[in-house]
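Technical annex B. To support the medicinal chemistry partners, we prepared a structural model of the target in complex with glycine, based solely on the information shown next.
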Amino acid sequence: MQIINLDLNENSYDIFIDSGYFNSIPTMINDSFSYHKVTIITDDHVSELYLEQIKNEFSKLNVICSEYIIPNGESSKSIEMLTHIYSHLIEHNMTRTDAIIALGGGVVGDLAGFAAATYLRGIDFIQIPTTLLSQVDSSVGGKVAVNLPQGKNLVGNFYHPSAVYIDTEVLNTLEEREFISGMAEVIKYACIKDRSLFDILTSHDLDSIHSVIKEIIIKCVQTKANIVMEDEKESYERMLLNYGHTVGHAIEKYYDYKKYNHGEAVGQGMLYMLKASLKADLIDRETYDSLVELLDVYGLLFDEVYPLEVLMTYMKNDKKSVKDKINIVLLKTIGESYIEKVTYDYLEKFLMEGLC
Ligand code: GLY
């Protein structure tokens, strides 16, 4: 088992990564934290697969366990769902010494984490991420949030879990489209920080990558932990994790989160940035070609062009906006990235050139 410690002084926690230890997680939680009561927040897909197992294990340990099951999908990450969760927590007399367990993907983790951050001014929460995307990115680093009708993650906080338990075996039950979505975040890490990860990705494809997925997850989580330890509240370094996300979030919003999932939209966001960067001579042709090829190999190359003026209106609502400027992430080469603060006019022209 690989244990990565995210050292944030009093908010430090361990991230456990291994394959095939799912049924041991309740015992590990009990040994470390001895909660009397837990509420598992999960969704209606994951609950079918894993809820009974985990509840059984908790009952053997005499931990009182309730569950709150949300519908799968981004629309559950709402203020309304949050109020239902608060009601459930109150009905089950959850106190400050009890804990919420987020069992699921990014939506479950962000929502359950926000509920934990705010209920009784904050109770413990544990992440058990079950998608590739949540295992490599959203379960680590303490970003918790819900969406507003105006945009994604507009209400949130930094609130760290007490521990993260990643069992790579649960990915065997993940639909291929969800796996591909997570691969967009994996490719992001290769782009911004990790040339050696890029080399692993190029020597595999969507079938064979499963044989090295634990190694890949460890690399991504270590990169993310290093970034978060350096810049927990996203003043510079952590912004690099948003590579492809400014355009990606706008694409998700363009279809009201219905057509493309997060990774598919981020894949397209990275392509926009690559095209514009090539045109502006910020990256060379070889870098461009190899990254476009990588997106293609992992099912993330989409052939869709959007009305830029519409995407720009969504980008102006982005959390990365500061007055009339926005921070964008650019690549020097594969594995090296930096941030540039630009005006919206500059960004629109930059992206437009890339499309010509
Ligand atoms: N998902 C980007 C971050 O955690 O900062």
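Notes passed to the chemistry partners:
The two ends are 49 Å apart (CA to CA).
The longest strand covers residues 325-333.
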